[in-house]
């Protein structure tokens, strides 16, 4: 990593910063988008489902990172990503929103994982620290999401303007990636070889266990923030600015967890780290959502965010190190299995429409409990 060109390292480390910054926009725009287009919560949540659903196509692109030019894959992915953002910002129907979100999700896999596989090659044994830095910048992207929407509203651009500007910036990122010397793939392109690699990975119990845990953890992402903000505004009657506070506190916790990753983990085993973090997640999320005072919610959200950052980085590093020469295929398998929760936001939306937002958030509070049980039951 130290000998790699600075521009290359920056382009790879900042990829999740760009992705998370953009990915917050539909979640943070849920209420104004729903109001402008006259959507129910279930329909609006469909947009949040279509985004990860693009991974059905994107998974094949992730596998390709082991066989084709990572520079071509990542830069074309970033270009399609930017164009999808622009179409999303111009959309006036649910159908167009869903289509743009689906393409966006597929392009995100090519863009992010093309860079992530290249980073894994460059980092070697320093992969956990490299991932902590990448994810730390992702948290900064999350942190910038709410101010971006607030600034767009203040300037009169609205949520549509935020998407249009984001799309333009992503196209510039594509141009920058096209100029970088990303490491070449380890294997020659071959459909038969790729299918054989995927079959062998699917037979690896370690990969399947990691995929299940990471898939469940992925539920605690932007859609959770979207429903929390809606709950605080509509049920707790907070102003939009205060409604963002616990979500912002979560993001601050994420940043702290990534920045202090080595200090938090120390010489502890990965399993010990995962157990401790999962226990904090179980306690922290309900308090962040339902505590009677905003200050308590914010403190709980910081703890939840920090524990989530350490949990995710530990699990991600372990998963990517399982089969070092097949990082792309491993990532693809994990992504596909992670789609078990693809429809979860839609389920939450249905519960919100029928039972209220508090009951809907209760579904999210159950996720860390399941994660803790899986870690406790895991053999290693």
Order of helices and strands: HHHHHHHHHHHHHHHHHHHH
Q: What's the total count of β strands?
A: 0
Spatial gap, N to C terminus? 30 Å
CATH architecture: Up-down Bundle
Low-confidence stretches: none
Assigned CATH class: Mainly Alpha
Radius of gyration, taken over Cα atoms and rounded to an integer in Å:
20 Å
CATH topology: Growth Hormone, Chain: A
Q: Main beta sheet, described? A: none
Structural class: mainly alpha
Residue share in helix: over 70%
Going by CATH, what is the homologous superfamily?
A: MFS general substrate transporter like domains
Per DSSP, the total helix count is 20
Question: Describe it for me?
Answer:
- The chain is mainly alpha-helical and 380 residues long.
- It has a single domain (6-377), classed as MFS general substrate transporter like domains (Growth Hormone, Chain: A).
- The protein contains 20 helices and no strands.
- The chain has helices spanning 6-13, 15-28, 30-37, 41-53, 55-64, 70-90, 94-123, 127-154, 158-177, 191-202, 205-217, 222-234, 240-243, 245-259, 261-265, 270-290, 294-320, 327-337, 344-355, 357-377.
- Helix 1 crosses helix 7.
- It is globular, with a radius of gyration of 20 Å.
- The mean pLDDT is 83.
């Amino acid at each position: 990593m130290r000998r790699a060109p600075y521009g290359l390292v920056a382009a790879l480390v900042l990829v999740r910063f760009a992705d998370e910054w953009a990915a917050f926009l539909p979640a943070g725009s849920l209420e104004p988008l729903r109001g402008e287009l006259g959507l129910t919560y279930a329909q609006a949540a469909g947009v949040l489902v279509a985004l990860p659903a693009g991974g059905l196509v994107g998974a094949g692109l992730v596998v390709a990172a082991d066989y084709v030019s990572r520079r071509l894959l990542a830069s074309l992915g970033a270009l399609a990503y930017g164009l999808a953002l622009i179409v999303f910002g111009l959309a006036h129907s649910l159908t167009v929103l869903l289509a743009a979100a689906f393409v966006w999700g597929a392009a995100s896999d090519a863009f992010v994982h093309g860079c992530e596989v290249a980073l894994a090659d460059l980092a070697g044994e320093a992969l956990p620290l490299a991932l902590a830095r990448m994810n730390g910048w992702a948290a900064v992207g999350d942190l910038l999401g709410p101010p971006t929407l607030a600034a767009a509203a203040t300037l009169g651009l609205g949520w549509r303007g935020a998407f249009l500007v984001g799309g333009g910036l992503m196209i510039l990122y594509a141009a920058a990636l096209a100029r970088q010397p990303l490491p070449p793939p380890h294997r020659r392109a071959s459909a038969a070889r790729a299918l054989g690699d995927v079959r062998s990975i699917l037979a690896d119990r370690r990969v399947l266990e990691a995929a299940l845990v990471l898939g469940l953890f992925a539920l605690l992402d932007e859609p959770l923030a979207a429903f929390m903000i809606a709950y605080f505004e509509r049920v707790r009657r907070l102003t939009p600015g205060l409604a963002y506070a616990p979500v912002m506190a979560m993001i601050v916790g994420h940043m702290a967890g990534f920045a202090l990753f080595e200090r938090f983990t120390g010489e502890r085993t990965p399993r010990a780290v995962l157990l401790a973090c999962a226990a904090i997640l179980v306690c922290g999320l309900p308090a962040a959502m339902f505590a009677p005072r905003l200050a308590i919610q914010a403190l709980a959200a910081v703890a939840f965010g920090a524990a989530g950052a350490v949990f995710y980085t530990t699990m991600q590093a372990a998963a990517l190190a399982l089969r070092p020469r097949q990082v792309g295929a491993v990532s693809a398998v994990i992504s596909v299995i992670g789609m078990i929760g693809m429809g979860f936001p839609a389920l939450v939306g249905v519960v919100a429409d029928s039972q209220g937002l508090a009951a809907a958030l209760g579904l999210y509070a159950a996720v860390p409990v399941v994660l803790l049980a899986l870690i406790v039951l895991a053999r290693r």
